[in-house]
Amino acid sequence: xxxxxxxxxxxxxxxxxxxxxxxxxxxxxxxxxGGVVVxxxxxxxxxxxxxxxxxxxxxxxTFTFAPVIFGDTNPQCRIPEIQSRASRLxxxxxxxxxxxxxxxxxxxxxxTDGYGRTKIIALSGFGMFLGQLVMxxxxxxxxxxxxxxxxxxxxxxxxxxxxxxxxxxxxxYAADCVPPHNRNVAFGYFYGIxxxxxxxxxxxxGYFIKWTGNILYLFYSVxxxxxxxxxxxxxxxxxxxxEARQLANRKSQGIGPLKFHQVPSWSRGDFNPLNLLKPLSxxxxxxxxxxGGRSLRELRINLIILASMDAVLFGVGMGxxxxxxxxxxxxxxxxxxxxxxxxxxxxxxxxxxxxxxxPTITRLVRGPLSQRSQVNTGSDMLDIIIIRISTIIDLIGYxxxxxxxxxxxxLLSGAFASMSAMASPTLTSSLTKHIPANRTGQLLGALGLxxxxxxxxxxxxxxLIYSSTVAMAxxxxxxxxxxxDNFEPQDDNLEAGEQD
Length: 500
What we know:
This protein is mostly helical and 500 residues long. 68% of the residues lie in helices and 0% in strands. Helix 1 packs antiparallel against helix 10, helix 3 (117-141) runs antiparallel to helix 4 and helix 9 runs antiparallel to helix 13 (423-432).
């Protein structure tokens, strides 16, 4: 056992239980993230609503409106124009944070290979701390600060890789400590903590707001959780990479604080925007004496397909998260409480799948931990079947979002879609089985890049669709339109229809 403050580097052979050092600080970290999601969306919605109604009152002196109270249901804000503006602001926030995270995520992943996991994980958490500090300042001013200041919070968040990078880097830590054929379970623990925090966060936030009577205290509590995460990672969690391995990785990969590849000089090509995609080269390994021809081609295909599926599933989840909350509040008159319940139920199902179903299935199929392979052998059929079934479940769940017309059925669709939670840790685990251990940080950094790009592209598409159609295309098929039984087509009617 390592005493608090007595940090040391360990190797995989030391202990499987080392991953449980990361889970205690990660839990309040994810609770903070889950608890502040809905209040952040409603903070932006409240500020936009106030601005829109105030501008309308200036243009039309006869226009009056009820006060817009942050944290209340505010029915006066449930109009298409405000919904559209709120959706576009969410798009801007995602673009800023996502683009910056796409640049920094792979660099942070590579830095963990050369300088250790814990320090870089704490650095990523520091970016979230700065972003939430800006959010708290805006909420404290109660509308006296422009809503555009929220863009600064997104910038801080993205500069340090955002929440997704912090979670991905903790998986690098787990990969150092866990043998390949048990990584899906280990990653499942991390995803379980993630969704457990997202499940408990909204509930705890709701009761906390009701208990204190002031939503500002929630933002202050979130700052406290993030600060605890940063300090615990820096001073309590033992480093998973020894100094010798860090030094070897720095020398072999040319890793430095401001350099990631050994280059003799700068050239114009270094500023090519396509260089943003260079970290993805880990998905296209070059031939070696032991790997070439068909084996190399199959390895590349596996890496590309698995990484693409992981990015798509992540992008759909991130891109629709805020839209589903805004849509449910618009369609079913939900407020903070109902939206928080929806997020909590969906996340609770994910926790059960990750902490109960996935370990049980893995043990039944692969046997006890002592009987599993300790070396990389690529994906097995269990990985493939879990990914296939989970993807189908996710598809059916989103189909439910499309067709249901009551809040209860929307909640049921969210719970069913959440049963696909086993896909993400299984995809990540499968990817790490294809590469050497000293490239784990680089691989997960590349996944962070794909997640950041998906975080830009997917919300852009979904927010534009929602903001453009919420007022005019509630349904693609108009009800109660039909042809009468006695209708007889006539040439003049046809011509008139063509002229119209």
